[in-house]
Amino acid sequence: MTEHLDFDTGKVWFVGAGPGDKTLITLKGYRLLQHAQIVIYAGSLINKELLTYCQTHTECYDSAGMTLQEITDLMIESVNAGKLVVRLQTGDLSLYGSIREQGEVLSSYGIGFVSVPGVSSFLGAAAQLGVEYTVPEVSQSLIITRIEGRTPMPPKESIASFAAHQTSMAIFLSVQNISGVVKQLTSGGYPEETPVAVVYKATWDDCQIVRGTLQDIAAQVKEAGIGKTALILVGPFLGDEYHYSKLYDAGFSHEYRQA
């Protein structure tokens, strides 16, 4: 028997769908899909197998061809009809999720929303590679960014300016301009021998990984035919250099263990 959960039908539930693998949605997100009466999903990005968690009578709408007004009109109409509404978006809502504009329209109609976090693709990509972004004494910071496209970048947030730090980077929505990314990274300070990994559709069944350096990654990506739905990971965290964590060092004392 499905567990009964008291989800507020007076709000819209924004759910992060995860990076691709349908089992990587959170338990709360899964339960919301089980109970939803209306699901509006980002059809160009999410794994549609997630919709199999819905009931047979759930109404599912693909937002890929919808405008903001069409999406919010559907939400408002459904909430006012007393239905449980789930807005299913890719990865985690806090990264390139465009939820603010949807939430502000809802708020103007007196309708609130709840965000249910998901597993972002930058986390799925690292898991696929079996790496960590924060390698002791190599890199302890991660920059998440994108290259400018039809959506311009703020003046102080160019990839070149971030590259000066030579720390770990996860670059979204940019693989279609891999040559431009490489140019900005090298002009900003990364050496050409810096390791790079491009992960296409992380955690999906057809995931593809291309490894190289800034010197050769653009040619490899173009040869592989990857032009969208991929993350560019760059930095020395992908290399061979690493140091052991002090946390488990037998000679290092902390509150739970004495050397």
Q: Compute the separation of the termini in Å.
A: 51 Å
How many distinct helices?
Answer: 7
Report the C-alpha radius of gyration, rounded.
21 Å
Helix content: 25-40%
Low-confidence stretches: none
The CATH level-2 architecture of the largest domain is identified as 2-Layer Sandwich
How many strands, which pairing sense, and closed or not: the largest β-sheet? 5 strands, parallel
Structural class computed from helices and strand pairing: alpha/beta
Kindly report the CATH topology of the largest domain: Methyltransferase, Cobalt-precorrin-4 Transmethylase, Domain 2
SSE order: EHEEHEHEHEHEHEEHE
Strand content: 15-25%
Task: Indicate the overall shape.
Answer: globular
List keywords for this structure.
259 residues, alpha/beta, Cobalt-precorrin-4 Transmethylase, domain 1, Methyltransferase, Cobalt-precorrin-4 Transmethylase, Domain 2, 2 domains, 5-stranded parallel β-sheet, 5-stranded mixed β-sheet, 25% helix, globular
Task: Please write out the topology.
Layout: E1 11-16, H1 27-35, E2 38-41, E3 59-62, H2 68-80, E4 85-89, H3 99-108, E5 112-116, H4 121-129, E6 142-146, H5 159-163, E7 168-172, H6 178-188, E8 195-200, E9 208-213, H7 217-224, E10 230-234
Parallel strand pairs: 1-4, 1-5, 2-3, 2-4, 6-7
Antiparallel strand pairs: 7-10, 8-9, 8-10
Helix pairs in contact: 2-3
